[in-house]
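Retry 2 of 3 after timeout on previous attempt. Resubmitting structure tokens to design endpoint.
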């Protein structure tokens, strides 16, 4: 007897052919499910989803003065417009990754993107400053549901060179979005489309989200962990408490005058962080699934890559905030000029980042070290331009430094993303991506809080030019630290 399978319109059918030639039809047999594949359109769609939250973190920087005048908002409330989004986004990212592993990443991506569109509409229609703050907090939560699914989908639905190219494009998209958000914000505020003014920086998301939902429904494959793990309730709560205790006082303290609650919150942070670590280790020893598995942090590539992402992101976001304030409030530039001053950085970043995969294949992670050295030269050139040209600092004066710094950043950020996730197993792609983006997002918030506060504190005593130069030199020290840390990265990237 011979056993044969043959295709039919309903799938695969199994038949037995006896020695006498009799055919025995055994009926339809379910074909083994093909592994999910992320095609070009699907990759474009998830990268669009990755761009939206990062653009919206920076798009309000040049719109804040206009928002303050229109809504009669104090400086502390305006900082909450930025911090409320960033903190809720950072606090919920790991949970968003876990939920994607559990319920399906495509499902969470679609739900998060839809929620992002609704909350963007709420931001654009906000009648008061506190309504805008509430809408921004909700928008950050929607971002936390959407963004971890991007990296998890790439990890689960690509392999080999295709994954390397996809991760390179993700890094390019992330870096470009952070610069382009500030440029786009300035253009939209100045354009005052249909009299919407600053509201257009949020309303522009709505048609983009609608297009993204249509594309995602057609082109993004469903992936999920083969061994879904339940949500770690105690770990989720303790991580949220620890991050809120650190980020809220640092982002709000200076504008609020450092009241007692800010100091109590900072004192609480190390205790909450220690409690989180202890609870996670105990859950792991007892065979339960912690929110952040200790085994994940034991991966050398992930741990060392995360350590590098912190100073890099602090310097990046701090610079973006400080240069926006300095150009508008100090040099008297309008929102368009303040945004376009960084256009050379965005263009060079994108162009150089596309070369990253080939350079990494040839030189390994020493590309990151070279990028740090190049970025240091760029930041030094920007500081020199500020010192020599103030208050006539504009696009031409910033062009050499911004272009060189953009090239250096492009050789670091996309490669660091690849390094961090290179050893993370596919079944934990969601939580791995969530941990990485949480680290990056927390550092972005810290950059605005620390370098931004330093700059604003220096202005009354030293003037705008000297405050800008000193802040840039502090950032330069952070670039040197990042470059030194890059020497400890694994030499090759998977």
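Retry 2 succeeded. Sequence:
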């Amino acid at each position: 007897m011979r056993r044969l399978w043959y295709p039919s319109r309903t799938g695969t059918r199994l038949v037995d052919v006896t020695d006498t030639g009799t055919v025995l039809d055994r009926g339809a047999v379910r074909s083994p499910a093909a592994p999910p594949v992320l095609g070009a359109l699907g990759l474009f769609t998830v990268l669009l989803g990755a761009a939206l939250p990062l653009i919206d973190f920076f798009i309000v920087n040049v719109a804040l003065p206009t928002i303050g005048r229109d809504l009669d908002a104090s400086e502390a409330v305006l900082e909450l417009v930025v911090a409320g989004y960033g903190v809720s986004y950072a606090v919920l990212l790991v949970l968003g990754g876990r939920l994607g592993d559990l319920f399906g990443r495509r499902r969470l991506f679609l739900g998060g993107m839809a929620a992002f569109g609704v909350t963007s509409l709420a931001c654009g229609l906000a009648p008061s400053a506190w309504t805008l703050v509430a809408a921004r907090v909700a928008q950050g939560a929607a971002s936390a549901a959407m963004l971890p699914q991007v990296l998890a989908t790439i990890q689960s639905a690509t392999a080999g060179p295709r994954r390397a190219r996809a991760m390179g494009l993700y890094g390019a998209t992330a870096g470009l979005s952070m610069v382009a958000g500030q440029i786009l914000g300035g253009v939209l505020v100045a354009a005052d489309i249909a009299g919407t003014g600053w509201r257009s920086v949020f309303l522009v998301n709505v048609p983009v989200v609608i297009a993204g939902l249509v594309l995602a429904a057609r082109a993004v494959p469903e992936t999920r962990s083969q061994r879904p793990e339940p949500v770690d309730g105690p770990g989720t709560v303790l991580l949220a408490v620890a991050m809120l205790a650190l980020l809220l006082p640092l982002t709000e303290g200076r504008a609020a005058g450092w009241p007692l609650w800010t100091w109590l919150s900072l004192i609480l942070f190390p205790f909450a962080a220690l409690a989180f670590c202890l609870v996670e280790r105990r859950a792991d020893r007892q065979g339960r699934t912690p929110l952040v598995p200790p085994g994940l942090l034991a991966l050398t590539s992930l741990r060392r890559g995360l350590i590098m992402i912190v100073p890099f992101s602090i310097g990046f976001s701090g610079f973006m905030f400080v240069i926006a304030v300095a150009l508008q409030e100090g040099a008297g530039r309008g929102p368009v000029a303040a945004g376009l001053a960084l256009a050379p950085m965005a263009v060079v970043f994108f162009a150089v980042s596309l070369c990253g995969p080939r350079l990494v294949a040839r030189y390994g992670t020493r590309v990151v070290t070279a990028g740090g050295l190049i970025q240091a030269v760029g930041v030094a050139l920007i500081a020199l331009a500020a010192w020599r040209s103030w208050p006539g600092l504009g696009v031409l004066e910033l062009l050499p430094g911004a272009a060189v710094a953009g090239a250096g950043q492009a050789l670091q950020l996309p490669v660091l993303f690849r390094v961090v996730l290179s050893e993370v197993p596919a079944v934990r792609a969601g939580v791995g991506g969530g941990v990485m983006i949480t680290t990056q997002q927390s550092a972005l918030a810290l950059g605005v809080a620390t370098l931004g506060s330093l700059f604003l504190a220096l202005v009354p005593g030293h003037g705008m030019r000297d405050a800008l130069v000193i802040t840039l030199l502090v950032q330069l020290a952070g670039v040197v630290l990042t470059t030194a840390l890059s020497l400890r990265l694994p030499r090759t990237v998977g």
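Attempt log closed. Residues 40-231+291-486 form a domain with the Growth Hormone; Chain: A; fold (CATH 1.20.1250.20).
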